[in-house]
């Protein structure tokens, strides 16, 4: 800091060339210099400054105008969106009401088809039971017939002698021969 003040102080020791010289009194020279600089800036910079301010004012006005236009467009889009929302909401309510009635119809259809399916299954069950009963009855009949036939053959074999056996065979052969003639 001392070097800077020394350089200003040393300026005061320069020789004067006529009426021109440096005033080293800082308090006396600064207001004059500032006044001169401000006067020059105002005189020459007034046009530039007013042009800059006018340009800035125009940009601000254009920005405000564009913002107002965008705001108007946004309000218009908002109204369209609200109208679409109301329309979609009404359609959703219709679908909801129709959906509930459709669900009830489907529920009734499902219940009816379930009852029909249960009836068919009951019929199939009854038919299966009847078929199994008939199969069991037929199997028992065959077993009874088989046992009766075995018992009859046993009785016949024990009661028949050779002569009676031969006569029975001859009679059966005669019956088969007669049946064959009838069939032919």
Q: How do the strands and helices of this protein lay out in sequence?
A:
Elements (H helix, E strand, L loop, with lengths): L1 H10 L14 H134 L2 H22 L1
Written account of the structure:
There is one protein chain. The chain has 184 residues and is mainly alpha-helical. 90% of the residues lie in helices and 0% in strands. It has three helices and no strands. The longest helix has 134 residues. The radius of gyration is 65 Å and the shape is rod-shaped. The chain starts with a helix and ends with a helix. Belongs to the ATPase B chain family. InterPro entries: ATP_synth_b/b'su_bac/chlpt. Its main location: membrane. It comes from Primula obconica subsp. obconica. This is ATP synthase subunit b, chloroplastic.
- Annotation field: number of helices: 3
Instruction: State the total count of DSSP E strands.
Output: 0
Structural class: mainly alpha
Question: Which descriptor suits the 3D outline?
Answer: rod-shaped
Radius of gyration: 65 Å
* Secondary-structure element series: HHH
Percent of residues in beta strands: under 5%
Mean pLDDT: 82
Task: Give start-end ranges of low-pLDDT stretches.
Answer: 11-17
Biggest pleated-sheet summary: none
Query: Helicity level, as a percent range?
Result: over 70%
Our measurement of the CA-to-CA distance between the termini, rounded to an integer number of angstroms, reads 155 Å
């Amino acid at each position: 800091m001392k070097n800077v003040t020394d350089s200003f102080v040393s300026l005061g020791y320069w020789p004067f060339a006529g009426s021109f010289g440096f005033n080293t009194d800082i308090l006396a020279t600064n207001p004059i210099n500032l006044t001169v600089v401000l006067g020059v800036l105002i005189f020459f910079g007034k046009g530039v400054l007013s042009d800059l301010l006018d340009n800035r004012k125009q940009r601000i006005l254009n920005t405000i105008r564009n913002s107002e236009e965008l705001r108007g467009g946004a309000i218009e889009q908002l109204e369209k969106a609200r109208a679409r929302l109301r329309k979609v909401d009404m359609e959703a309510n219709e679908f909801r009401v129709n959906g509930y009635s459709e669900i009830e119809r489907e529920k009734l259809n499902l219940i009816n088809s379930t009852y029909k399916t249960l009836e068919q299954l009951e019929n199939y069950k009854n038919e299966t039971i009847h078929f199994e009963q008939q199969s069991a009855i037929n199997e028992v009949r065959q077993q009874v017939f088989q046992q009766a036939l075995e018992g009859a053959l046993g009785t016949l074999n024990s009661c028949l002698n050779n002569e009676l056996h031969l006569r029975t065979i001859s009679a059966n052969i005669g019956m088969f021969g007669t049946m064959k003639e009838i069939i032919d």
